[in-house]
Amino acid sequence: MFLKVQCPWNVIIPAENLDANELMLQKSIITRLLEDFAGKRATKELGYFLAITTLDSIGEGKVRQNTGDVLFPVVYSAITFKIFRGEVLEGVVHKVLKHGVFLRCGPVEHIYLSSVKMPDYRHLPAENPVFLSDKMSKIEKDVVVRFIVIGTKWLEAEREFQALVSLEGDYLGPVS
Fold first, then answer.
1. Deepest of 61, 112, 165, 170, by most Cβ within 10 A of its Cβ?
2. Are residues 112 and 163 in contact, defined by beta-carbon separation less than 8 angstroms?
3. pTM of the predicted model, to two decimals?
4. In Å, what is the CA distance from 66 to each residue of 36, 50, 103, 147?
């Protein structure tokens, strides 16, 4: 699900980048905020950070004693992506294994669909393995699959989410 969030942040501008021109200062603040944002990746609460939509406010700068750099408190709005239990999404298969498949959905790269959660599908081993249903529907590499999220896990060290998904439900499976 896409979320619109408002986030506080502290932007540090090196002393050599400070300029009396207000427009140049705003440009430096925005540039630094975008650099910080790009490295942020994701948080457990908000999900994956995709884009800054607006810079809502810039607070008064405070000079840091040791370096002479200036810290500006800012508030910005951003779009994030986070998966929730019970949500129906679509993902692309990127790996087919004997016991299930791995999918990607937006920035989430570790979504596992177990063969146990694919009713009516059976694994066919080959050079390019597939799961085939009784109705001749195929789940193979690069196929788009509609699924329901049955669980998520946040990995703090990697700053990413993992998900366990299922095809048990109506209108779930490969998308034509």
1. 165
2. yes
3. 0.84
4. 21, 34, 48, 53
* Residue that is written with structure tokens 């705003």 in the block: 26
The CA-CA-CA angle for residues 134, 135, 137, to 5°, reads: 100
Pair of tokens at residue 25: 């200062």
Could you read off the pLDDT of 107-118 as tens digits, one per residue?
A: 999 999 999 999
Residue 35: its H or E element: helix 22-40
What the block records as the tokens of 41 is 């990746």
CB atoms within 10 A of CB 46: 15
CB 58 within 8 A of CB 29: yes
Torsion angles phi and psi, residue 34, rounded to 5: -65, -40
